Structure formats: C-alpha cells, structure tokens
C-alpha cells in the first residue's frame, strides 16, 4: 500500500485548473487565435515548400503538384517550393510576432519589453551595492548606479525635521520621508513617476509646500492603520515596503530605521543641539552626533542587504546630517563593521555652513570612522580644478572647497581614488555617471 501524500489530492485539482486556464485562450476577444492560425498556415506552407524541394514521390505529383499548378501557373517545382517556404517563414514570423505583442500588450507596453528583458538579464547580474546617506547626494548616486546594476539598496537617513517633512513628522509621528521620496524617485522605472513623486504643491493652504511623494508615503502609512483598526497610527515599515513594491524600483529603498528618531549634536564649546534643522544653523565645530532614542531598530531588509553586499558606499552628502545619521542605528553600524564588503566613502566637494566649516578631507574621513567604528577602505576624492566663478558664488555663502590633505589620509593606509567627479553646471555637485564608473571599477 502506498503512502498518502497531500500532493496526491492536489494533482487532480491542478490538472483541472490547468485545463480551465488553457480553454480561456479559446474565448472570444483574446486576440490570440487569429494569429495562432496565421502561424499554423505558415507552418503548413513551409512544410509544403520543403516537401516540394526534397521529395519527388507520388504525393508530390498529387496534392502538391495540384497546388503548384493551380496557384503558380506552372512554375518549376524547385521555384514553387522556394516560394512556399518563403511565404511560410513570413507567415510564421508574423503570426508569432503579432501573437506575442497581443499577449504582452495586456500585461505591459510591448515597446518597453526589450528594456525590461535587459534589466532582468544584465542588470540583475550586476554587483550588489548598498548606498547610505540622504539628501540630493544619495539620490544622484542612485540615478547613476541603476544604469549598471539592479542590485541596489539605498539606506536613507530619516532624521530630517524641516520643511514638508518636519510638518508631517509632527502631525503623524513618523520618520522623515523627504529623502526617502527622492531616493524612491531616483530608482523608479515607471515613466513620469519620478517627476510626479517630487512635485511640490505651490498653493492649497495647508497643502502648500508638501510634495506628492511625501503625501503618498503618509497615505500608505494611514492605510496601514485603517487596515489594523488602529487609531494611533499605521505601520511605517509596512508603508515603505508597499511603496517599494508598487513603484517599479530598480533596486530597493529603506529607511535606516522605521522609528521617528531625533538627531542631536555636541559641539567643541560643549553646547548640545537637538534637531537636524537646528544643527545646521549652529556655531562651532561638531564633535559628536547621535540619535534620541539611541537604540532604534533597523529595517530587517537593510541589514540583509548589508550582509550580502559586494560594496558599501557612504555619501556623498552632508556629513553630520545625512551620511553619519544613515548608520547611527546600532544594528546598521554593526552590520557594516561585520561586513566583508569594501566600504567606500565619497568625500564632499565643498564645506557646509554650520556643519563642516574648515574641515579637510582627512577630518571628514576621521569623523566617519569614529562614528562607524570601522575605517572606510576607500576614499573617493574630487581633485580636479573647480571653475573660479563657481568658487566665487560658493564663497559668497561662506562655503569653500574641502581641503585636500591627502598625505595625512594616505598615512592611514586607506586607498584614495582621485579624479574629476564634478558635474558641469551651476552647482558643485558630483556627476552621477563619473561616480558610477569609479564605483563599478571597485567591485
């Protein structure tokens, strides 16, 4: 007697379901049967041509000879065979092509299929890169990276408390969403969606100043609350997971933590400031930054990405309000310290008022290492000349090029990757394509 298995009962059900699904291809309006018939006729004509060219037996002198004389008015058998073969090949090709486009048009735009196949076959075999930071710097790196690999994970600092993000944090008790939206838009493959995500309302009373993407994340958060009948609020982790699934990302975007933590800083004069917006307007050199509460949990997906990473990228971006806060959650810092992947820090081009006034590249590097508990293996530094007019505009706002004390940096044993990484334009920003070429070469 055989041993009963649950799959024995499931097999008839699966077979019945398969037969039901197969019959649906025969329903009216499927736009498949007509093209399948064209391909079938093409296959028969192709067979007819092959037989006429290769077989001179009784059947050829019967049906095939009749078809040759009736349609081609007495052409030689070899020429008739070539004609039927060519016509058959054309009909098979057209039938299959039209059938594929008909099926694909029900699922996606057929013209986008080559791009999707390219992403699936080439980019999904690319290196596993985890980029940490926030603000404009991280989103620009992501725009470049997604052209080379689909295995991208962005871990975003979620401590901003100004502008639209600050208002939403106060109203809903959620982490900062602004930088998350920028990174989601940067990795999205949906046509027109990045612009929509970053659209900022200019009027509408309380709506003015908010971006569509910020409101979308808050809406997903509130939907999570309504699904659980929880009047206290939703599940921000669930909201960001849903955003990742619906936005057609070439990679993934996660907050460093799904809890609303505040950033604090201690300056060399002993003063303590709390809140990212206040920190940016303080005076004196920053010695240390941290989170309140200090033990906020990390997103599990972010930790898994760090464990599997080939390369971990820190920056570019504001040192104390974007780059370092992205790894302040203890689990994030520990995962980076334990990772076997190379860690690359992308140094800023210009100093930032109230945050990195007078800091050199070496001091930027030391600050990252002190807060992370691990020295980066690589520092990528812009060393090419900067346009004097651009320097003058920044100097008017008390911003200057980050001093390149490369000898002190070399003394630590870190690998330095110098080069021209600046984008041409009105701002001293990194060029995504130049950065990505250097980063991919490190993998």
Automatic annotation (TrEMBL):
One of its GO terms (biological process) is regulation of cell shape. It is found in: Cytoplasm. One of its GO terms (molecular function) is LPPG:FO 2-phospho-L-lactate transferase activity. Its main location: cytoplasm. SUPFAM superfamilies: CofD-like. It comes from the Bacteria. Keywords: Cytoplasm, Membrane, Transmembrane, Transmembrane helix. GO terms for cellular component: cytoplasm. The chain crosses the membrane at residues 35-55, 75-96. Required for morphogenesis under gluconeogenic growth conditions. Belongs to the gluconeogenesis factor family. This is Putative gluconeogenesis factor. It comes from Allomeiothermus silvanus (strain ATCC 700542 / DSM 9946 / NBRC 106475 / NCIMB 13440 / VI-R2).
